[in-house]
Amino acid sequence: MDHPLSRVMVPCYDIDSASRRHFWTRLKSGLGTNMPAVWSLHSQLKNDTIDIGDLPLSRVLVIKDANYPWLLLVPRREGAIEIIDLDEVEQAQLMTEVSRVARAVKEVTKCDKLNVAALGNVVPQLHVHVIARRTSDAAWPRPVWGVVPPLAHDAEEVQNFIGALRRKIWLS
Q1: Could you please report the per-residue DSSP string of 41-89?
Q2: What's the maximum distance between 2 C-alpha atoms anywhere in the chain?
Q3: Distance CA 161, CA 169 (A)
Q4: Which of helix, strand or coil describes residue 19?
Q5: N or C: which end of the chain has fewer CB within 10 A?
Q6: Cα dihedral 103, 109, 113, 117 sign
Q7: What global pTM score does this model have?
């Protein structure tokens, strides 16, 4: 006797190669199984940041540069390079988390402007920058990259900043 599922008809959809690659990447990473997806933070991000905690989708990090209050959100999804590599629910969750973190940064820093960007030209792992800007900062009004060398954080000041952020975005 045939297996009952051997006669099930499955519709075949014409999907592009990027969608097919995304599907197989997610399937291989454990989606739809009891195995957790394997995820790790890119080594460059690990070296350049301080981990302050996890939201439901994203790891929240502070960039090691006291010139600017600068956070990153990195979705914990293996193989995600672009926002479109996340499914629609994850994309909405990412935007919710970016908004939550951006509000916290704005409240804590009282900045003049927020820069929010997902570039990934140097580090391919999907990450979103949330940068508090002041009209008096060294790079204003240009982007912050490469304008001045990174400035080491004062240990006490960065811990106070992280504590204030955690309270605002419910990480503690």
Answers
A1: --HHHHHHEEEEEE-SSEEEEEES-TTS-EEEEEE--TT--SGGGS-HH
A2: 77
A3: 12
A4: helix
A5: N
A6: negative
A7: 0.77
User: Residue 15 CA to chain centroid, in angstroms?
Assistant: 27
**Closest C-alpha to 114, from 71, 153, 74, 73:** 71
Question: In whole angstroms, what is the distance from residue 34 CA to residue 36 CA?
Answer: 6
169, 100 contact by CB (below 8 A): yes
Question: Residue 14, exposed/middle/buried by CB under 10 A (0-12, 13-18, 19+)?
Answer: exposed
The single-letter code of the amino acid at 59 is R
Q: How confident is the model at residue 24 (pLDDT cuts 50, 70, 90)?
A: very low
**Residue 138: which of 49, 62, 68 has the closest Cα?**
68
Cβ atoms 75, 94 nearer than 8 A = yes
Higher pLDDT, 129 or 172: 129
Angstrom distance (rounded) from CA 172 to CA 166: 5
Reported as a pLDDT band with limits 50, 70 and 90, residue 38 is confident
Q: How far apart are CA 36 and CA 32, in angstroms?
A: 9
